[in-house]
Amino acid sequence: MSEYLFYPGCSMESSAKAYYHSVMSVCKSLDVKLNEIDDWNCCGATEYLSLDITPAYALIARNLALAEQQANGLNTIVAPCSACYLNLSKADHYMHEDKAFGKKINTALAAGGLHYDPGQMVVRHLLDVVINEVGMDKVKERIVKPLTGLRVAPYIGCMLPRPDYNKRYSDSEHPYELDDLLRALGAEVIDFPLKTACCGGHMTQIGPDTAFELIRRLISSADDYKADVLVALCPMCQMNLDAFQGQMNGYFHTNYHIPILFFTQLMGLAFGEKPENLGFGSEFVSAHEAMQRIGVQTPLPDAAKPAPKKPAGLPMPPARARAGQKITIGNEEASK
Amino acid sequence: MSSEDKKPKERIGVYICHCGSNIAGVVNVADVSKWAGDNLANQGVVVSRDYKFMCSSLGQELIQKDIKEQKLTRVVVAACSPHLHEPTFRTACKGAGMNPYLCELVSIREQDSWVHTDKIAATEKAKAIVAGGVSRVVHHEPLIPLKVPIHPATLIVGGGIAGIQATLEIADAGFPVYLVEREPSIGGHMAQFDKTFPTLDCSACILTPKMVLVGNHPNVTLLTYSEVQKVDGYVGNFTVTIRKGARYVKTADCTGCGICWEKCPKKVIDDKFEAGLGYRKAVYTPFPQAVPKYPVIDDINCTYFQKGTCKACEKFCPTNAIDFTQKDEIMTVEVGNIILATGWDLFDARRVPNYGYGRLANVFTNMEFERLSNSAGPTGGNIVLRDGKTTPKSVGIVHCVGSRDKNYNNYCSAICCMQSLKFAHLVHEKTGATVYNFYIDIRTPAKAYDEFYQRIIEEGTLFVRGKVAEITDAARNPGEEGKLIIQVEDTLVGKQRRIPVDMVILSSGLEPRAGSKEVAKTFGISCSADGWYIERHPKLDPVATMTEGVYIAGCVQGPKDIPASVAQGAAAAARILGKIQQKEIALEPIRATVIEEKCSGCRICNTMCPFSAILFHEDTMVSEVNPALCQGCGTCVAACPAGAITGTGFSNEQILSQIDGLLLLTLDKKKEAAVA
Amino acid sequence: MSEKVTLVDPPSAGPVAHEDLSLLNEVSLCTPGDSHLEMCIQCGTCGGSCPSASAMDHTPRAIFAMLRAGMRDEVMKSNTPWMCVSCYYCTVRCPQDIHITDVMYTLKNMAIKSKMVQDSTASDFSRTFISYVKNYGRSFEIGLAGIQNATHLKLAARLPNMIPMALGMLTKKGMSPLPPKRIKGLDGLKKILDRAQELEAE
Amino acid sequence: MTEETKPFEPVMIGFTCNWCSYRAADMAGISRMKYAPNVRLIRLMCSGRLDPTFVFKAFAGGADAVLVSGCHPGDCHYATQNYKAMRRFYLMKRVLNQLGIESGRIKLLWASAAEGQIFANEITKFVEEVRALGPLNWNKTSAEIPVETKEEVTA
Amino acid sequence: MSNKPKFAMYWAASCGGCEIAVLNIHEKILDVDAAFDVVFWPVAMDAKYKDVEAMQDGEITLCLFNGGMRNDENEHVARLLRKKSKIMVSFGSCACEGCIPGLANFSSIKEMVDTAFTTITTDNPDNLRPQTSYAMPEGIITIPTLNTVLKTLDQVVDVDYYMPGCPPESHQIAAVVDLVIAALNGKAELPPKGATIGAGNSTVCDECTRKRHEKTIKAFGRIQLTHTDPELCLLEQGIPCNGPATRSGCNARCPSAGAQCIGCYGPAEGVVDYGARLIAAFASVIDSDKPDEINQILDGLVDPAGQFYRFNLAGSLLRSSKSAQKG
After folding, report:
1. Which of B488, C107, C123, E3 is the most buried (most CB within 10 A)?
2. Rounded distance, CA B504 to CA B365, Å?
């Protein structure tokens, strides 16, 4: 049993209830106890920063301060939403790096009777905890119903792997952790080229032309690879790609139909949880058809874009090392 | 304790330089000179003068005259930095019959008049500095430079073009050279290239004759497939331990006929010479013109070594030259000087994930392209995509991959611009494809380089000024389907562009060899933070290192092109030839010495020396400093708990007295304050 | 066509109107941490990486050049920072380690304070969002979208399916049409934000 | 106590490495950068030559502060000797502290031959810091000196 | 009065161990008695200052003076004996370099007196403090006044020879006595003035039989908490042994017995500051290039100044009377 502080974030209470329920279910299966930070507030998303930097960071830091108060021996905050995760971690980072700034934020916090010592809390995304703390072995142990036959596009988005101060994530452009996890669940994973591209963010609210284009790029690329579903790990990404997929189709006169699911929903299914307990059915683009494949052997889509084969002609260089695997890099050694 | 009543044992002359107005403009030199004469007489100052330009011949004559007439035993000159004129004044003193090391130059220009504006404070400081010098010089001892004989042989490590050039220069001058190369053949990276910029000479055509000369030279001992393990000794007298790798081929019997590799059934991807694009056998020579011509058996891939059966090569060898029982051989050689020319490694382009190398088939590195374009390469010189047959219709060449980037290497790799221009030409010439060059800046600062750039522009290469943001196969429209899309801001237009191409060539930068730090340690030289070896002086002494007798040439010192590498190889050779001709070398006598009777053999000093100059004699339980190895840093002197090590030139007495001198005025002042 | 004479140079071709050389430093100071903004070598990695570059009137690189040139008004009026989607591609790829995304936030702050924002769509959305956060401690997506579309009718016109979508939110996602429950420490939060606001103004 | 109208001018001794910081000082001179005239430099061949006795002697001889400078870690002219200087510096600082000398009176500065500006700036800064500490007070005892073990190395 | 040369011995601020060491030369003490006329030795015989004052200058041939200069009485007697003695030997660590009493130089007089009169083992309910003079009905009585710092003998008077050790080893004392007797008989020559006698010229390591190698230290340990190899150099095992910097002469008594040298024989010949040498030596062999790790290793040296200056504080550059007066 491992225990963490938990910062759910606003979306988990509203648009991403499916995520919330599936996270709870999966964590229970994996013996992960999540202690929700009492009386947490919104992280401000990307909006508050746009307006007023100091209050924005003070808003975020209030959560860190509460977490520090309630830590009770724990020092890790788990956030399932990439934006929340980034905001919390960034506030901690800048308060630490820029001492004057840290002092300023603490002056603000003091007005509400709070204080936060930068560096006290470690903020981690749920995926990171599942892969690196719980471990793939334990995940594999829990699988009772492999997702054999389901073709998935792993989609990480922006704010988990970037920015990469402190080199906190394996790879800021082509990370493979989610691929490995989904593959472990039994799914067929495409090498999704846009796995860390942008979902449109708040552009759906302020610049639909841009937003639709960004959504289209992702959906059409997933469709090119004949993915059955696209797997997300951030409520904002899921919402943009799911809720606006129809409008995007209208805008471009296309007819894509790619369900957008949370990785925890697929984990839950593989762990044998009932779909209704995992928030299935709440998606705009229905996953019904795709999900019918699970447990039932269905043939691969015939016109699927084939995975890049070994070239017949000249040999390829060996693939880039996966996370955790050490690749020898001349200069890394030199810089030691 | 007080020695004020004692008569000073030295006769000291003090000379304060005006340096025109450089010093005199801020420091009241007359005051300093008078003060020193009056107040330092008790320390032995008998003459104190100031003069317009001490370094002028008149100034020097002034000192010489005083030495003779006033019977001076010590001289203190207060002028510019010792780094500038210490040799001048030492020579002047020597000319008057004084040991040059009894002269001390203290700086009142760089460290006083030039950095201060307060004239009173600067004058006070000058007095303190002079007093420090006077107190110090009393404890100077006459020194004689150490002379050691120089072994005429030279070790050259690395058989690339820089090492080859150096080898030929020295060997042609009639002195023996040991050339050690890690690979089975000499030639280095240059052997892999197709054409060389800007002349577009065939690389092999200009390199091979030199390789042959090295291979046949009577003065050259060529040790390929070998590595230096250990270096002992010091300038003029190095003992080098070399491990000769087992080739499993008796070179005395081998004719280099090639039947063994023809018959060998094991095909291996050649990630060295062919940059991973071609294949070799488990028994191989890296390339047809290899020097020496003898193959090696790669025991990691050889079926016999791995599974115990095969021996095809042995069966077919017409001269029975295969010998599976060979073992690595350890040998030692004696040399007087060493040149390190171990070259560079290619930056691993897989570290830049957004360029997709290793993930996207038709993204190539520069070394891969060299092999593609080389008519002796895996495609016979046809520039084709990874499928091995399709000729690209459009090619993007990306500059600065891994260079000039804080995420990877900060420095400019120096050769990529010209190399990329060369690639543009080759692609254009061989395929007629549309070629784009993506650059941040075009850097062509050498003879005929910019003319080459002009030529490439004229040939129709399209230049886009912008660092490529990403290379992707995710098409956004049908026009991009099946292509690699280079996404970049055309900074001159101020717009983002997506340029679909068939092939991308990454101009990966140069990196120090993996393990360069360890090699530096073996040879006792230092690395910059990047890993390049540090030269003695970046401008005025680029091929020497701080370690006497160890020189560097070519890309070990920093990224550079072929002409510069050749020039450095030749320069290092010239430096060494000069040394060998002198037959012996004078060493600066700043050295540490163990006073044997005071040493208790505690061995604390033993780990202090990075040059292994400290020897411990188990029998007498005493440590000893080898003066020829000692570089004079003084770290052991400071470490010795018993005070049993002394450092000539920087002894405890000298420095402690200098501290007293520097603080003399302060004490006077404090005393005055106390009296008041 | 060539004989057509224009009396006034087009604005882009003329000399920079008011060079304000303190601008770059000001932006750098307002950004938390060390932004390395002054280190820009104008390579264009940011502009090349940006997923919404096509919607921007200047690429980020051009903005940095304009900051250097002291073109305060032009930068403040630019839509570039407002089109930033915070994807951080530019930040991780920048060869000079410039915290570009954070600089964009700073520019938005400065633009609002200087009242030079040209299109208020984005800034209004931020304001609405924050008003919910200030009043409830948490955000409220449906209310947010509603207000945003009501205030920016042009926007609503571009999103004809907004109403069925909102309905979908309520039915499918089981979202509540009511604002979120207020957090317990709302008073404390308000005090913190007010104090922060004062500090910001300092 | 005498009434001082002029600000206290500390006297400081600086130990510099022949290959880096001494040259940095030369560089500052050649570039005519200005800094406070309170520091008097002694040239050693290497910061590794720095015998703590020199520092003790300087304090005992009336210096108010001591600067020790050498090549940046990894850049030592003699390969690794500056690390040895660093080790000694830390222990020396602890002992000086126990002997009643505030940590602020001794500073370790890494400066390469090219860093004339840094050298000049750091000296001016150091002089200011020591000026704030006032003259070295010998009658202070170890009990009166706050013990600091946290090391901060500049540049 | 006999015509034998006169002998005096005095203790100032010291523990009395030196006197015991002299008596501990066994039958050799009879030689002393045979060769000398003992005129002044407060520990061994009754004598008054006024007896000494009455002597002629230089009347005493050999004076072994032990103890540091803690108060004005110590200084007075030191000056007196100097005047009356031909050969003044600074005898034992206290006289030579301050020794344990010299550790008070870390503190002010007030701190020192407070410690002496208020610690838990002191029965002083009225919090009384000693007064240097006090009016009694019979008149004013005085006790000596404390010096600000403890001084070594040679900081007050001119010294002919130094004989280190806490206390000096008896066999060394015997040798010195033999030498002086021989010199008096014209059979030997006395060493030059200022020499250290009754000790070696190198360091304790010279006499220590433990095996030693190149030294790299990853951690310092305290000997009572460490299981040490009896054959191996203690410093190599991380035990802060002062042997490498300490003058030889004791036959490496402590390291041979399994304890680290604490430095009672003082610095080796020519060393300016004993503690500075040890700082350089100990820190030099630390095996780390990382500031944090170095500091962590240094944390293992619990009281470095105490370790390096246990015997030497009053003779050190920074806490001797000379430097203390400069401020």
Report:
1. B488
2. 8
Residue B7 lies in a domain: no
**Range(s) of the domain holding residue C29:** 17-117
Which two three-digit tokens encode residue D122? Answer: 């750091």
Kindly determine whether residue D51 and residue B638, on different chains, have CB atoms separated by under 8 Å: yes
Q: Which residues contact C198 (CB under 8 A, 6 or more apart)?
A: none
Give the mean model confidence (pLDDT) for residues A245-273.
Answer: 92
Interface test with chain E among B602, B606, B637, by most E beta carbons within 10 Å: B602
Which residues of chain D neighbour E290 with C-beta distances below 8 Å? none
Length of chain C, please? Answer: 202
CATH of residue A221:
3.40.50.11810
Model confidence pLDDT, tens digit, residues E101-116: 999 988 888 888 888 8
ipTM (interface predicted TM): 0.69
Q: Do B18 and B101 reside in the same domain of the chain?
A: yes
Token duo for residue E83: 């005047």
Instruction: Give chain C's domain count.
Output: 2
Report how far apart, in Å, the C-alpha atoms of D50 and of each of B402, D16, D42, D43, D83 are. Answer: 40, 9, 10, 10, 12
Q: Helix B161-172 to helix B562-582 angle, to the nearest 10 degrees?
A: 30
Domain containing residue B614: CATH number:
3.30.70.20
Residues of chain C with C-beta less than 8 angstroms from the C-beta of A247: 159-161, 165
CA B156/CA B569 separation, integer angstroms = 10
Range list of β-strands (E), B523-613: 550-552, 584-587, 592-594
b/e code B628-659 from CB counts within 10 Å (16+ = b): bbbbbbbbbbbbbbbbbbbbbbbbbbbbbbbb
Residues A174 and A281 in one domain: yes
In sequence order, what are the residues at sequence separation of 6 or more whose Cβ sits closer than 8 angstroms to the Cβ of residue A293?
Answer: A149, A150, A228
Question: Does residue E137 sit in the same domain as residue E160?
Answer: no
Per the CB < 8 A criterion, the answer to whether E309 and E316 are in contact is yes
Q: How confident is the model at residue E1 (pLDDT cuts 50, 70, 90)?
A: low
Asked if pLDDT for residue B145 goes beyond 80, the answer is yes
Same domain for B215 and B355? Answer: no
Q: Does B390 share its domain with B492?
A: yes
Burial B461-478 (b: 16+ CB within 10 A, else e): bebbbbbbbbbbbbbbee
Count of domains observed in chain A: 2
- The CATH number that applies at residue A33 is 1.20.1050.140
Tens digit of each residue's pLDDT (9 = 90 or more) over B209-264: 999 999 999 999 999 999 999 998 888 989 999 999 999 999 999 999 999 999 99
Rama region for E99: left / alpha / beta (φ>0; ψ in -120 to 50; rest): left
Q: Read off the tokens for D30.
A: 């050649």
Chains contacting chain B through 3 or more C-beta pairs under 8 A: A, C, D, E
Residue of E111, E147, E217, E323 to mutate when probing chain D, most D C-beta within 10 A:
E323
- Structural domain span for residue B139: 12-143+652-675
DSSP per-residue codes, B307-361: HS---HHHHH-TT--B-TT---EEEEEEESEEEE---EEE--GGG-GGG-BTTBT
CATH T-level topology, domain D12-144 = Rossmann fold (3.40.50)
Among B269, B384, B530, beta carbon nearest to A315: B269
Q: B224 with B202: CB under 8 angstroms?
A: no
For B41-58, write each residue's pLDDT tens digit. 999 999 999 999 999 999
Q: Which of B327, B357, B383 is the last residue of a domain?
A: B327
Which has the minimum average pLDDT: A34-43, B655-664, C141-150, E94-103?
Answer: C141-150
Those chains having 3 or more beta-carbon pairs within 8 angstroms of chain A are B, C
pTM listed for this prediction: 0.74
Backbone angles phi, psi at B322, to 5 degrees: -80, 135
pLDDT in tens, A162-186: 987 766 677 889 999 999 999 999 9
C110 contact B CB<8A: no
